[in-house]
Design goal:
heterodimer, A: about 110 residues, about 35% helix
């Protein structure tokens, strides 16, 4: 079975990454190794499954972080001890590698 | 106790054992509804499916119940990291919204198992823990957690869900996947938003320490998808039967191919655009076929 339908890659780039990370189409194109002559993705694409869902999920973050938030980043405090941030460490061999949100979870292959 | 009937009807597990039978159930029902469109449960194709197809779909959705439920603890931990790092409160709030969404997904998975006539597994009680390094700054730790959970895990989930929804024909499956996708987009965005915010002022040491962990994260998920020398592939929600493709299931090969496309075309370019000095060559080596 091989998927031959519409590629979800560009939808995700536009709907998730560019908006949330405040990345311009030109910068992203450059980071994808595309030619400068390559037209950048349309930041306001036609409605698709992803984009329609995006509307249901609420508006994108504002384009600039608030001025009051800046000092919290520059403060760079030392991380609290792991035992404080994560109160219940587990001995499970899979404890330290979460996977994908939708289908993710480490589990044994079924017999 | 008064519970609005239209709300209860939307939430499949409302009568299940984990509902408290306290007044909180009405509030819970409202949270579960969120902003989503109702799902046309009566239009399901399940009765028309071959028994073995129905059974496999029940199994797959049953696998997702503990997965979705357990992921609440991952995002709870991320919220701890955000707070420790002094993250802006809008990001902390969205992080907590994710936990509510994961309960919604658990409920939907329960309903799908019921639609296909399967058996419900118990909810897990284990607590997920994210990779941690006490030598990091709080900001670097929060960036790492955001990357592994949100920028990598949830963003790839969006990619896969978009594919699954695109070819699903059952209106119930399409409706359920639409809810999942709408939520997962927010889950993915919160990580990218935090990363972009933090990297506006991050120093070189922070950038480097964040970037250093990324090959391990990509390889870790790849190991779950593809298996490794020490451990078989961990994912159990795929099936090669093409009949299932119309019902929101892909093959493991499709999933692997999508991941190998997602990493160089979405994940790595976006990291570079944000300013993460990731070693792309090392990352790509970890997912070679």
């Amino acid at each position: 079975m091989s998927y031959e339908g519409r590629s979800p890659i560009n939808d995700v780039v536009r709907s998730v990454v560019m908006g949330a990370a405040m990345i311009s189409p030109a910068l992203l194109a450059a980071c994808r190794g595309e030619s400068a002559a390559t037209p950048p993705p349309d930041p306001l694409p036609e409605p698709t499954a992803t984009v329609a869902s995006l509307d249901a999920g609420g508006p994108a973050p504002t384009s600039e972080p608030s001025a009051t938030a800046q000092p919290t980043v520059t403060a760079e405090p030392t991380a609290p001890p792991t035992t404080v941030v994560r109160p219940r460490p587990t001995t499970s061999p899979t404890h330290n590698m979460p996977t994908r949100g939708f289908a993710g979870a480490v589990r044994a292959r079924r017999a | 106790m008064h519970v609005e009937p239209d709300l209860v009807d939307l939430f499949p597990a409302d009568g299940a054992a984990w509902i408290s039978e306290t007044p909180m159930r009405s509030e819970y029902a409202r949270l579960m509804r969120g902003f989503h469109r109702p799902i046309p449960w009566e239009e399901t194709h399940a009765p028309k499916l071959a028994p073995e197809v129905r059974a496999e779909l029940a199994r797959i959705w049953g696998e997702r119940i503990p997965t979705e439920y357990r992921s609440i603890t991952g995002f709870s931990t991320l919220s701890f990291d955000f707070i420790a790092a002094g993250a802006p409160v809008d990001l902390v709030a969205v992080c907590h919204r994710v936990c509510i969404d994961e309960l919604r997904h658990t409920e939907l998975a329960v309903k799908m198992v019921e639609v296909y006539g399967g058996h419900l597994p118990p909810l897990p009680r284990e607590i997920s823990s994210l990779p941690a390094d006490e030598s990091l700054t709080a900001v670097a730790q929060a960036c790492r957690s955001a990357i592994v959970l949100s920028c990598l895990g949830e963003t790839f989930a969006c990619t896969e869900l978009a594919m699954l929804r695109e070819r699903a024909v059952d209106p119930v499956v399409r409706g359920v996947l639409r809810v999942f996708l709408a939520d997962e987009i927010v889950h993915a965005r919160v990580g990218w938003a935090y990363l972009a915010h933090a990297f506006k002022t991050a120093d070189a040491v922070t950038r480097r320490s964040v970037a250093d962990a990324i090959p391990t994260y990509v390889a870790g998920i790849a190991a779950n998808l593809f298996g490794s020398d020490e451990q078989a592939a961990a994912v159990d929600v795929t099936n090669d039967d093409p009949r299932l493709a119309e019902h929101g299931v892909c093959s493991m090969r499709e999933e692997q191919d999508l991941y190998r496309k997602f990493i160089p075309e979405v994940f790595l370019p976006a990291l570079r655009a944000v300013g993460v000095p990731v070693d792309a060559a090392q990352v790509m080596r970890s997912i070679e076929a």
